[in-house]
Amino acid sequence: MIRVIVCGVLLRFALHATAQLPQPSQQYDDQAILGNRAILYWKADDREITFEIIANTNGWVGIGISPNGGMKGADIITGWVKNGNGFLQDRYGIGEVQPKLDAHADWILLGAKEIGSYTVLKVKRALDTCDDLEDLPIDETLVRVIWAVGFDDPNSPADLQRHDERGAESLFLLTQYKESTPPNDAKTFDVKMERVLATSRTSDTVYQCKYVKLPRYNRKHHVVKIIPRIVEENKGIVHHMLLYECPRYTESHANSLDGKIFDCGENSDQVMPCVGVVAGFALNEESYDYPAHAGYAVGADDSPNVFVLEVHYDNPTFNSRRGRTRSAQKYDSSGMTLVLTPTLRANDAGELLIGAEVSPLMMIPPQYKKLTYPGYCFPECTNEAFPPGGIHVFSAFLHSHLLGRAIRLFVIRSDGSRELLVADENYDFNFQFNKLLKEEVILYRGDSLMLQCDYNSKDRSKFTFGGEATNDEMCLADLSYYPKIPLAFCGSHPDAQDYLWMIEAEEISGEWPYLDLNPTIIKPRDYENTRLKTAVDDYLVEEFASNRAKADYQKFLLQEANVLNACYKSDLSDYPSSWIKRTIPSYSTWPNASKSRRNCSRK
Fold this sequence. Notes:
Blueprint lengths: L2 E3 L4 H5 L15 E5 L3 E7 L3 E8 L5 E6 L8 E8 L2 E8 L7 E2 L6 E8 L2 E9 L16 E7 L15 E7 L15 E6 L3 E2 L7 E9 L7 E9 L8 E8 L5 H7 L3 E3 L12 E7 L5 E2 L4 E5 L7 E9 L3 E2 L4 E2 L5 E2 L2 E7 L5 E2 L1 E7 L6 E2 L6 E7 L1 H7 L5 E9 L4 E9 L5 E7 L9 E10 L4 E8 L8 E2 L9 E8 L4 E8 L1 H5 L6 E2 L12 E3 L8 H9 L6 H14 L1 E8 L11 E3 L20
């Protein structure tokens, strides 16, 4: 199967063409359109990757692998064809200046030619050259592929002129998704919205939820594949979808709920009744296949008979200054298709959320280049909730919002040893995905988990808080595992007293620990009826202006802050260990994925 990653529109690309688009020299697994100027084809095995670039220019072409979408730190190649001869240069970026030539050339030129108005370059490189100074390893994580073209050839190899056009795209260079063929006895069931209002005249964020009653099956089935179904004209506003399982209802209660739609945003009076995640899809995601030995169970006597579909709509045309949208209201009928079979697999699969519970006390001050925020799953929770043989994790979905730059999930074993379970060091809010683990990881009773989210708030002038809106923040990981257990969430909740003293407040509204996402300060009288977020911005923005204050707050989060154990089931009932208080464990070092499991080679 060839995956076409459309980062532009092929028609738009063709508008710049002056001759027929050349075809690649071989079959490739993947391809991506780069802006309006080039197509990148690639194929990889377990040791090396091959690129073929077809660019609409008779000058030079540049492609780079960047840690952040910029030139600094990028592994770059530049190439061109002159007088029938191909030239290739291996370079590395040092900033917004001409990239320097590598001391050791690791990219190999396999072919170069001009066809009409196009330049075609074919190159290859080892996935990991172990040149940490001038190259970047290529692995399963998301990377920023930067590209540039010059309309003229260099006069000499040392005379590379400034680019005429450039851009960057987020890509997976090593294939994540492997599509499976549904079994012959498979059937489908659609869970989707029905023309719900997807935009608001007063906000850039809309959350809509819908109850969906499952069909009655005469026996247990396994869901083996879930396919996102996003209405084509709404792909620019459907940010993500989540499917939740509800506690099993009586037949009459389930019938009364079926089809009901409700506002489930942060300002809604409706309490989300179902918190056990079944599946989730974010921007650009493909279908989700369960491993061959696991599936999500439906149709059994104890299986859920009602789901809630939640869709987050993000309206890019909303003008926050004017407080209104620039476009007409839109309606949506997106959702998911569940593929299920009566041929049961060996294990019932489940989903487990790990991290920092969404709370207004999750505070990210402005003007941080990097702030690491922790979410912690206590060992008391896993000791109570996990089965004797542990749970087997086979994939993970890492999630934060616009400020997120990197997310890492660590396992802290009962003996104190630490392992990196999964990481995305190049996190992109607009390119989230389920990451399939190369090998399943077993989590045992007494293990704890630490989720770390790195944020960059340099462009913010006010605090950012935990919340559901796009401009709020989250720090969560959704783990897919088996065998299924009742545990739905294991994470940490900030201790209010650690934060209220910063603004000299004593009491806030809401039943602790279930706070509103923007509670009102009750005491002292000076702050009475003031919203927490307003008080924090008024009182603390200047306090965090100094580098010393920024460093102190980072130390506080990672070493000194008290957190409460949030450990609850999909029916919202707590485990006995919930709401115990402690400081998050602190370590001077954590395992680093980039320094382990290396497979270095030079060709």
